[in-house]
Design brief:
The chain is mostly helical. Helices cover about 60% and strands about 5% of the residues. The chain has a two-stranded parallel sheet with strand order 1-2. The radius of gyration is 17 Å and the shape is elongated.
Amino acid sequence: PDDALIARIAAAVPVPLVLHGSSGVPDEGLAAAVTAGIRKVNVGTQVSAAYTAALVSGLGPGPDPRRALTAARTAIADDVERLLRVISAPSPVLH
């Protein structure tokens, strides 16, 4: 993300800024964007990918998917917890 542009826009408008399509943006980029003025970070695709990867990895022979579903839910929780640490670490400037 263009952090200087984000900061200028955040200073110029009275609404919270949203970073759409942030899945795949490195953690440092997310943290910098929040510091610059982003107030909502959309990570749905990234969280879905973590869920799907864990589900596919956990599915084995047999009809019972519960172990894989548990692993998938854990993968989501771990990814969201990590992302929250990333975007909470900076001290955002409030407008």
